[in-house]
Amino acid sequence: MLTVIRPLAFLSACVALAAPASARDFVAYASTTPMLYRYASCVFEGDMPTAEAQIDKCAALKLEMEKEAAEAIQRFHVIERRDVQFELARGFREIELDARQTRRKDKPVPKAIVGYLRCMGEGVMADTDFQAGDAISYFGVQDRCEETHIEPSKGAVSDNEASSIRALYLRFQRNGRLTFPAARQTLRRQRSGLRLLPKQLMDRSFLNLGLIKRVPID
């Protein structure tokens, strides 16, 4: 039987898993993405007067996320543990650098995205399969977080903010379930929308500030 590979789907998977091409690219592994999301939601909340103060405010949470990530890496990985830890550290640094740049460029992260990131991170980390090292799943989590944080913003924000929300939502949206220890097989079977990629390229930093429209801060 002839297997037909859909070009767009194949290209998307290749781009998502491509090696970092610039200094600010990094790889977000599925096992540690929830910790990145949770930390980012704190740093981008922006209720402190400066980026440095905001980062300092989130220092305790960062330590907690690093501990949670170390445990997740032990549960989900065998061979690539050092790589996952290295990319996680890069991800945390990129989040902090983005926090400074969003302040300088008057490009605040929309509250809808801050809430969405927190919801996604907490939802996956609380799942019993995640805690047991059996699976990483966004079933139920993604729909709930979208309904709670993204949907209410429609028609309630400026056009610029709505554009930023749409772009960032597509960037941070995660769907499906990745079951271990069969994660590596996912790369060969990634034609189903029900399968979560084991890792994903985050190009041009965590946020990619080009996706955010300038919104004056009151």
Keywords:
6% strand, two-stranded antiparallel ribbon, 9 helices, 218 residues, 4 strands, mainly alpha
Structure overview:
By secondary structure, the chain is mainly alpha-helical. The chain has helices spanning 7-16, 33-43, 51-57, 59-76, 81-104, 111-125, 128-132, 141-150, 159-172; strands spanning 26-29, 135-137, 177-179, 199-202. The protein is 52% helix and 6% strand. The strands form two sheets. Strands 1-4 form a two-stranded antiparallel ribbon. Strands 2-3 form a two-stranded antiparallel sheet. The longest helix has 24 residues, at 81-104. It is globular, with a radius of gyration of 17 Å.
Dominant shape: globular
Alpha-carbon distance between the two ends: 62 Å
Structural class: mainly alpha
Counting DSSP E segments of at least 2 residues, the number of strands comes to 4
Mean pLDDT, rounded to whole units? 88
Radius of gyration: 17 Å
Largest sheet, spatial ordering of strands: 1-4
Regions with pLDDT < 50 over 5+ consecutive residues? 1-16, 183-191
Hey, roughly how much beta strand do the residues contain? 5-15%
- State the major sheet: 2 strands, antiparallel
Figure out the total of helices: 9
Order of helices and strands: HEHHHHHHEHHEE
Percentage of helical residues? 40-55%
Short description:
This protein has 218 residues and is mainly alpha-helical. Helix content is 52%, strand content 6%.
How are the SSEs placed, and which strands pair?
Layout: H1 7-16, E1 26-29, H2 33-43, H3 51-57, H4 59-76, H5 81-104, H6 111-125, H7 128-132, E2 135-137, H8 141-150, H9 159-172, E3 177-179, E4 199-202
Antiparallel strand pairs: 1-4, 2-3
Helix pairs in contact: 2-4, 2-5, 2-6, 3-5, 4-5, 6-8, 6-9
